[in-house]
Amino acid sequence: TVNLLGALHTVELLLMGGPPGETGKDTSKITNQTALAQRNILDHLLLLGVESQWAPVALRCTALRCIGSLVLRNPQNLDSLASKQVGEEPHVQPALNAILAIILRTSVAQEFVAADYVFKCFCETNPNGQALLASTIAPHPSQGTATHGASSDMPFGSALLQALVSSDVNGDMEACCRASSVLTHIIKDNLQCKDRV
């Protein structure tokens, strides 16, 4: 665990690109994002941050923060995350759905913050990604009869909507607040997504 945390902290530093105010920081950041993505680091980060619920919280949180920093303002990495699948058959699901499930279900505040950071980075200056997520917001056919908590086969937007509109009888105010945070990233600075929602 200590070795993995050390490696992830190194990745975090590389993805920052350098100290604030340093000339060429953005170029260094993009170069590092590209180089790390070419070495399939996203797969490893998803394994540690999303698929390995046995891993210590600090490790999962650091991996999630690295995912956010890897995709921030990087079109190729954004597309890669949007198309990634996690899990094993027959429980394969889109990576973004799995990260949303972490947000809605975790009992650890740091893990919520780290997973929310992934959506913040995914949506920032990414109107296509915002539109992709907003386009899935619709009630799920089984939503009225389902027990609380999104199932892994539920579309992203349906799971988000279920958490947003849960009542005190069947719902959870904390999950509703967390879903609201994700929704904020989806509609921020995007009039089309606001209209869709």
Protein architecture, described:
This protein is mainly α and 197 residues long. It is built from 11 helices and 2 strands.
Cα Rg: 17 Å
What share of the residues lie within helices? 55-70%
Question: Per DSSP, what share of the residues sits in E-state strands of 2 or more residues?
Answer: under 5%
Structural class: mainly alpha
**What's the shape?**
globular
Mean pLDDT: 91
Uncertain residue segments: none
> What is the annotated CATH architecture?
Alpha Horseshoe
Distance between the termini: 41 Å
**Spatial arrangement of strands, main beta sheet:** 1-2
Number of strands: 2
**CATH third-tier fold name:** Leucine-rich Repeat Variant
Counting H and I runs of at least 4 residues, what is the number of helices? 11
Kindly give the count of domains. Answer: 1
Protein name: Vesicle tethering protein Uso1/P115-like head domain-containing protein
InterPro entries: ARM-like, Vesicle_P115
Key features of this structure:
single chain; 197 residues; mainly alpha; Leucine-rich Repeat Variant; two-stranded antiparallel ribbon; 2 strands; 65% helix; 2% strand
Short description:
This protein has 197 residues and is an all-alpha fold. It is 65% helix and 2% strand. It has one domain: Leucine-rich Repeat Variant (Alpha Horseshoe), CATH 1.25.10.
Structural topology:
Layout: H1 2-16, H2 25-38, H3 41-51, H4 57-71, H5 75-83, E1 85-86, E2 93-94, H6 95-105, H7 109-123, H8 127-134, H9 156-164, H10 173-187, H11 191-196
